[in-house]
């Protein structure tokens, strides 16, 4: 959900509708599941999945709170197995953090240019490694994304250059995790508070600063 001019804009999973307060602004119909959504720069962006056809899309539509419903609706094909875990707007573009396909590939950070519908995969690249990406935030004009299974933070420049920041290793007796373990960790949530980034880490429920 997202607060827009004092009302909640919601993307309820399994309902197939985008709601502004109690008003439906975008209706996908029966059998559709919304995986993620965001309102940014006068547009609504939604990741949508049709459970019957096993087909998925990224939907873009023009909308502002005074509009009854979305207009100028565009749909981009999207692999149904590639979950969209996060969306964030940055410098006029939309960035998506995604899961992996059945082969263990295909995850990454993608940049969508709304005006053209162009999709560009920024990472993984030759200088990074496989896995999935979850929470994202923008700090000091850089995009920060949490990674699985390393638990590292990917720092992405506007140019697409990527570097990884290592999150501290596991402590001994950490809910069954071996001392020093760095595998199977998921940097699942990010927040900025008092000038520092706070990382919520799965599976331990730890908070790293």
> Which strand-content bin applies to the residues?
over 45%
Given as residue ranges, the uncertain stretches (5+ residues, pLDDT < 50) are 171-176
Which overall shape is indicated by the principal axes computed on the Cα atoms?
A: globular
- Computed over alpha carbons, the radius of gyration is 18 Å
Give the CA-CA distance, first to last residue. 26 Å
The helix/strand series, from N terminus to C terminus, equals EEEEEEEEEEEEEEEEEEE
The helical percent reads: under 10%
Number of strands: 19
Number of helices: 0
Strand order of the largest sheet: 1-2-3-4
The largest sheet, given as strand count, sense and whether it forms a barrel, is: 4 strands, antiparallel
Structural class: mainly beta
**Mean pLDDT figure:** 82
Fold and architecture overview:
The protein is mostly beta strands and 209 residues long. The chain is built from no helices and 19 strands. The model is unreliable at 171-176 (pLDDT under 50).
Q: Could you provide a short overview of the structure?
A:
The chain is mainly beta. It contains no helices and 19 strands.
Topology diagram in text:
Blueprint: E1 2-4, E2 7-10, E3 17-20, E4 23-27, E5 32-40, E6 43-50, E7 55-62, E8 71-78, E9 84-90, E10 93-98, E11 108-113, E12 118-123, E13 132-139, E14 142-148, E15 153-156, E16 162-165, E17 186-193, E18 196-202, E19 206-208
Antiparallel strand pairs: 1-2, 2-3, 3-4, 5-6, 6-7, 7-8, 9-10, 10-11, 11-12, 13-14, 14-15, 15-16, 17-18, 18-19
């Amino acid at each position: 959900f997202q607060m827009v001019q004092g009302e909640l804009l919601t993307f309820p999973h399994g309902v197939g509708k985008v709601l502004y307060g109690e008003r439906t602004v975008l209706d996908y119909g029966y059998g559709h599941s919304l995986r993620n959504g965001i309102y940014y720069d006068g547009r609504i962006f939604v990741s949508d999945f049709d459970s019957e056809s096993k087909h998925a899309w990224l939907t873009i539509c023009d909308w502002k709170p005074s509009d009854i419903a979305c207009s100028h609706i565009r749909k981009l094909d999207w692999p149904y197995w590639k979950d969209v875990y996060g969306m964030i707007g940055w410098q006029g573009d939309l960035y998506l953090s995604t899961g992996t396909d059945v082969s263990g590939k295909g995850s990454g950070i993608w940049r969508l240019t709304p005006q053209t519908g162009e999709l560009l995969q920024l990472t993984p690249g030759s200088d990074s490694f496989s896995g999935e990406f979850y929470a994202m935030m923008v700090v000091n004009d850089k995009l920060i994304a949490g990674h699985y299974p390393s638990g590292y933070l990917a720092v992405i420049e506007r140019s697409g250059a990527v570097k990884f920041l290592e999150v501290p290793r596991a402590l001994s007796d950490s809910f069954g995790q071996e001392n020093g373990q760095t595998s199977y960790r998921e940097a699942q949530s990010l927040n900025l508070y008092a000038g520092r980034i706070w990382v919520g880490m799965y599976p331990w429920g730890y908070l790293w600063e």
